[in-house]
Amino acid sequence: MAGDGSQLIFWAAPDGASSVEITWIVPAAGRRGRDKRVPRPEATHARVRRWGGIEPGEQVMSLEDADRLVQELELYQAQQAVIGIEQARRRQARIASLTSRCPHCDVARAYVGLEQLLEGSRSRVAFLGDVWGTSNVDVHMYQCTYCGSIELFRDGGPIDHPLPGSAEADPGPGPT
Q1: Cβ atoms 170, 146 nearer than 8 A
Q2: What's phi and psi for 83, nearest 5 deg?
Q3: SS3 sequence of 146-158
Q4: Deepest of 7, 25, 38, 161, by most Cβ within 10 A of its Cβ?
Q5: How far apart are alpha carbons 96 and 145 in whole angstroms?
Q6: Rounded average pLDDT per 10-residue block, the chain, 176 residues
Q7: What b-and-e string marks burial along 18-50, b requiring 16 or more CB atoms within 10 Å of the CB?
């Protein structure tokens, strides 16, 4: 919203517009017959600009129509906020339930810690040499306490380690 109360900007709309800009105006009241931007209480019309969506472009509408549009956009914005909160809650619940399980033994793997792996390809090593052709990659390692198989997760991803499900998981006696 503009500091003088003459403009509202919404960053999404139900019709698919990426943004909608509503400017409160008095038509032909400015210099050289241009529209004058004014705060909402002084306006007689509104200029609406849409980017994207079904009807992109600019139009001038009455205050009543603009007020209905503002209510619709505010409701849509609130609905999108609720959807975003619900999606974040579901994602957090899913991440909290994650565990690293051994596909061979069907037991929970134990978190070993952050390790460094040396990565490089033959062509990089041949072209750049041993020192410049390789690099270290930080990975979180989980190991099966029964068979010793491991699972690796690159550090810096969207999931924090150790996985909540693995930190408290009991490896159990092994397969039956």
Answers
A1: no
A2: -60, -45
A3: CCCCEEEEECCCC
A4: 25
A5: 22
A6: 78 92 88 86 94 91 95 95 91 75 87 82 64 74 89 82 60 52
A7: eebbbbbbeeeeeeeeebbbbebeebebbbbeb
